[in-house]
Write a structure and sequence with these properties.
- It contains 2 helices and no strands.
- It starts with 5 loop residues before the first helix and ends with a helix.
Length: about 140
């Protein structure tokens, strides 16, 4: 049954589904950031400092170590950003779900009103038919 809220319910449902997809994408991004951070730590643990050799080897090792630490800091910032995105997506999803439920409720109430009007009209129609039948039967009895 169509009501004046039906199109709004459909619109709000599509917005809610869009928010759900956005949340899923944000969660995937967060998982990727966590994996990248874990890989960065593993790479840092795999780096070997030279025990002996010339200064070039030591400086190269120091640069690799510094670069890996920068990568770790970058991945930590990425995780913070991804967590923020997830929280924002959750908030938007919550708002969209509330809006969807609100319009579904309004649509349901509108349907109840329409059904009540139909029931009243059906009752009036039945009363009219009964009155016509009763009047016809009374006319037949009199004649």
């Amino acid at each position: 049954m169509k009501t004046r809220f039906s199109s709004l319910v459909t619109l709000k449902k599509s917005a809610m589904e869009k928010s759900e997809r956005s949340l899923q994408n944000a969660n995937i991004d967060l998982q990727n950031a966590n994996l990248a951070l874990e890989e960065s730590y593993n790479s840092l643990n795999d780096l070997q400092s030279p025990i002996s050799g010339n200064i070039k080897d030591y400086l190269a090792s120091k640069m690799l170590l510094s670069s890996q630490r920068n990568t770790i800091e970058h991945n930590k910032a990425w995780i913070d950003f991804a967590k923020n995105q997830v929280n924002q997506a959750k908030g938007q999803l919550k708002l969209d779900m509330i809006e969807h439920e609100k319009f579904k409720y309004l649509e349901l109430e509108e349907m109840k009103k329409i059904l009540k009007k139909q029931e009243i009209q059906d009752a009036k129609d039945l009363d009219e038919v009964a009155l016509i039948t009763h009047t016809r039967n009374n006319k037949q009895e009199v004649t």
